[in-house]
From TrEMBL, chain B:
GO biological process, one term: transmembrane transport
Sequence similarity: Belongs to the binding-protein-dependent transport system permease family.
Residue ranges crossing the lipid bilayer per the database entry: 21-45, 84-105, 117-137, 167-192, 213-235, 270-293
Coiled coil: none
Protein name: ABC-type sugar transport system permease subunit
Residue span(s) of domain ABC transmembrane type-1: 80-292
Gene3D superfamilies, per database record: MetI-like (1.10.3720.10)
Taxonomic lineage: Bacteria, Bacillati, Actinomycetota, Actinomycetes, Pseudonocardiales
Membrane topology: Multi-pass membrane protein
Species of provenance: Saccharopolyspora hordei
Signal peptide location: none
Amino acid sequence: MLASLVPFYWLVNTSLKTGAELSSGSLFPTQPSLQNYVDVLQDGEFLVALRNSVIVGVVTTTLAMVLASFAAYALARLALPRKGLILAAVLSVTTFPVIAIAAPMFKIWSDLGIYDTLLGLIIPKLTFALPMAIFVLTSFFREIPFELEESALIDGASPFQAFYKVILPLAVPGMATTAILVFISVWNEFLLAVTLTSTPSARTVPAAIAFFAGTNEFDQPIGSISAASVIVTLPLLVLVLVFQKRIVAGLTSGAIKG
Amino acid sequence: MTTTTRTRRRSRVDQQQRRTAVWMVSPALVVMFLVAVVPIGYAIWLSLNVYSVRQAGLSQFVGLTNYWNALTSPEWWEAFRQTFFFAIVSVFLEVVLGVAMALLLNMAFRGRGLLRSTLLVPYAVLTVVSAITWQAMFESNLGLVTGLLRALGLPGGEHVWLAEPGYAMAVIIVADVWKTAPFVALLVLAGLQVIPPDVYEAADLDGASRWQTFWRVTLPLLRPAIALAAIFRLLDALRIFDLPYVLTKGANGTETMSMLAYQELREGRLIGPGSALSILTFATVMVVSLVYIRFAGGNIRDVAKEN
């Protein structure tokens, strides 16, 4: 438990130190200051990166949820031929090293003129978010009792009506969990974020932080970097701790039932 | 209603259902096909050419030359070795720690919920942020870890960890284990919770010690969950990119396969050789997962079937 928390504590500790104190290894800041936070929030590039991350995260998650809920419903509850094969194909996408996609994507996007744009980031991130969303949702959908939708079907509803009138309302908690998992993985994704962008205008938070950290090895603004890191971590931390039980369920069911 | 009309009606419903199902599953599959499978095919084509970004339009078919160059270069084999070293050590540590954490969490004690919540803290932290955090922890003068090692008079306190081969890799492994051992713990915990209690009662009646129970009962029953966690982690570890990118930029013996391909692509601006390296990375990951599924696949299929 200590091991989980201490590094994060060290980050917060560093972010609250200023000037001379940063060059001492003290266990807590003697004069805690929010100066680093002020600096970071006044830094235009960080704010742009934050905005980019939010846009990319929200758009990708929304699209992934719509497409994945359709696919998962068909896989979990409808008579679809070759289900096993489809699931295996979907799973195999998760084994693709992103680097193998990065080179052709770089070239295709340059030719299409969407290299270094948010759209150019959203499309490939969606592709890697889909398998995860499909697996987690499929396992949530399977847990809903079949009688409900059978009676809807007998009453003359089409399978699609049964899906959005009966199943979707019941699946709201599972959908929320899946959306959080997808959002976190999109927020965290790094390789596409650095290969498909070249300027701060489309850079997301992980890429911005990495460039921040890498500008000059000997003069790293470690205080600002730590503050920026805390800023992007806290919202996720709150989200994860509030939805703790559901997230554990989502992580394990997606993995095991996949 | 006669049986035939009922069957006919049944099959009509089935047909309608099947049509809806195909229609619903297609958009996701099309997106994945267009953005994952097609680019891989294109990457293979690119890897057979030499193409220069600096001199636009200059493209020449060179066959397998890029592969030959990669496979005869010491850089590739060094990256291959580093990646496997990283993957094996970190996945091993993650599984051992993960199982230990899961066993602990499965015991009834006060504050268990709190402990389970703290497990999720590393999960909420961006990998890039965790890299920066561990960089600060191992900072040679001010880092908490190096400071502690010095204070306790243990070896390692005097090292500039990220600037020395071996030590740099150790920091990357620590950062990875910290971030993902909890994930393994959660999967194993889920596996533990489905073990029926009567198995333990039987072991208890037979007079098995706790240690024996663990080795002979718990561990074998956990094997599917462990096998699954291990393959997930292994596939991720073989593709590792972000930790070495932030921590060392691939210096000091931490260049992984993905890093090498990236550097060739991005910094060298060489799409052909870079693509060859990324296809080699892809092939390596595929081969490892196929071999793994061949040997541990039965376990994973069992888990999939149970659910």
